[in-house]
Design brief:
- 53% of the residues lie in helices and 16% in strands.
- The protein has 317 residues and is an alpha+beta fold.
- It has two domains: 2-140, no CATH class; 186-314, no CATH class.
- Strands 1, 2, 3, 4, 5, 6 and 7 form a seven-stranded mixed β-sheet that branches.
- β4 and β5 form a beta hairpin.
- α1 (2-9) packs antiparallel against α4 (45-56), α7 (105-122) packs across α8 (127-166) and α9 (173-182) crosses α11.
- The longest helix has 40 residues, at 127-166.
Amino acid sequence: MFADLAELSRNRPTGEDGGAHVYSAREYFHTYLQSLDVERAGLPDAFQAKLGKALGHYGVTDLDRSPDLEAAVFRIFLAQQRASADAAVVATLLRAWLPESPPDETLREPAGLALERLISATQVRFPALADLARGVVFAWFAQPLLRRNRARVYAQVRAHLRHLDAHPDSPDRAERVAEMVRSTEPLVRLLGQRLVRDHLDNTVMLEVLTRRYYGNKALTSVRTREVAGCSFVVAERADSSVVSAAVSFDALDGALRGLADLATGEDSVDADIYLAGRTSRRTLTRWPPRCTTSSPRTRCRPRSDGSPPPSRVAVGR
């Protein structure tokens, strides 16, 4: 009902002749109020259809003037006058719905259609209300789908990692790595979970992240090197080398010493060091993001491409 009333008062052009004056739906309705005669008011067919739909909520099915039609039109006029107050009520209801669970199967489709109509009817006159409705649509319909997809992708990646943990020389290693690289979800969280929970070889995960971050086709000679007691994934690019490692905070000194050894003799090294530690919340820090290390010193500075400052990614328990 609210959507139908909003359609009758929406301030958007509906004219077709490109003349000096283009009538809005609100103007058509006010013109109609002067005579309650669609012919005399010169209402276009599209507006007549909207008017008939709104009148139908009051049991009026005929546009010919009658006491029932007069009463229904008066009630529509009053409803338009209090539209702002009604919008506040609808906004309160939508805010209450946001944290609620999605409707069950019997109400899922009607609720979705009602929200779509509400968005369409309010996005011009009440844009904040339309945004709230979009938030409910996301929370009820899109977010559960995204979570299911993420869970499915993570389960597949974990299965690949478990297989390669047990069979590091598996003949299908390249295919498994390529499938993880193509996955559509962020994978840093999985690396953090492995770092804080198990003492595992994370070079496969580092290779996947390196290929995703720097461009799979741009990398050559991807390999693993053990330096200063730390495992590094090293790759070559046209203008630099790429080095990545994943260690606990306690092992950062060794990782930096190994990075210095790897940087010796290199013109430029893009270094990614993923740090993990047990705090009140399990965190994974990528330090520093896309830094450049110039030999012979392990001096990291932000790249000149406007990379953001060091970031922290929360890892689920």
